[in-house]
């Protein structure tokens, strides 16, 4: 309820409230949600998040244009926390929640310039961790929601991370449906895992 109430308040007073006040109110709310969804050690994820909560978060991000190109300094912390929340929801076994989170991540990856390699590397590193867990338990349905995000990241970061040089065995992302199966095998190989830990994990 807090997210919906805050979103409504920010919309109502958005034109009259100082940007710094909007940013502080929204950032404080996002910190509470981040602490609950990402940092809370409770393993019962149903008590930490829901599709309604995530929908409220996405509405807040859209209303405040947090991910627009060239965001102000006041939104940088919110963007980082938002990515953390989206990644956490992508890892959730609730596939409806996962679908919402991965759809938003996919859109952001395709529309953001990602001039700084750290942002893309952060997303790729943690998406890989989620992928590895789904493969370990053979959850193909969950994997199917994740792989479009991984594919989009690989295409976006191809030049930035020098994938052609570091990962000569990487399946072609243009291969269509074949990439789904090919990557599942490839990401278990030493070439990929070494790259993730020694190259991506250090950025």
Number of helices: 10
What overall form do the CA principal axes indicate?
Answer: globular
Strand content: under 5%
Mean pLDDT: 86
Radius of gyration: 18 Å
Structural class: mainly alpha
Pfam family, one: DUF4800
Give an account of the 3D structure:
It holds the Pfam family DUF4800. By secondary structure, this protein is mainly α. It has 2 domains: 97 residues, no CATH class; 87 residues. The protein is built from 10 helices and no strands. α1 packs parallel to α3 and α2 runs parallel beside α4. The longest helix is centred in the N-terminal third of the chain and has 21 residues. The radius of gyration is 18 Å and the shape is globular. The mean pLDDT is 86.
Q: Can you describe this structure in just a few lines?
A:
This protein is mostly helical and 203 residues long. It has helices spanning 2-13, 19-39, 51-63, 73-90, 95-111, 117-136, 140-157, 163-166, 178-186, 190-200.
Give short descriptive properties of this protein.
203 residues; 10 helices; 2 domains; mainly alpha; single chain; globular
Map the helices and strands:
Layout: H1 2-13, H2 19-39, H3 51-63, H4 73-90, H5 95-111, H6 117-136, H7 140-157, H8 163-166, H9 178-186, H10 190-200
Helix pairs in contact: 1-2, 1-3, 2-4, 3-5, 4-5, 5-7, 6-7
């Amino acid at each position: 309820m807090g997210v919906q109430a805050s979103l409504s308040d920010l919309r109502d007073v958005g034109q009259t409230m100082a940007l710094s006040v909007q940013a502080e109110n929204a950032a404080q709310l996002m910190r509470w949600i981040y602490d609950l969804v990402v940092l809370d050690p409770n393993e019962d994820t149903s008590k930490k998040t829901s599709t309604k909560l995530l929908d409220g978060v996405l509405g807040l991000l859209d209303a405040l244009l947090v991910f627009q190109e060239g965001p102000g300094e006041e939104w940088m912390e919110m963007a980082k926390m938002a990515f953390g929340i989206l990644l956490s929801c992508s890892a959730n076994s609730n596939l409806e929640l996962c679908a919402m989170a991965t759809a938003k991540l996919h859109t952001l990856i395709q529309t953001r310039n990602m001039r700084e390699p750290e942002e893309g590397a952060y997303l790729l590193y943690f998406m890989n961790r989620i992928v590895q867990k789904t493969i370990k338990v053979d959850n193909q349905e969950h994997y199917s929601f994740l792989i479009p995000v991984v594919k989009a990241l690989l295409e976006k970061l191809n030049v930035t991370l020098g994938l052609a040089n570091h990962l000569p065995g990487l399946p072609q992302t243009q291969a269509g449906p074949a990439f789904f199966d090919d990557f599942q095998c490839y990401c278990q190989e030493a070439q990929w895992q070494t790259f993730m830990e020694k190259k991506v994990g250090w950025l």
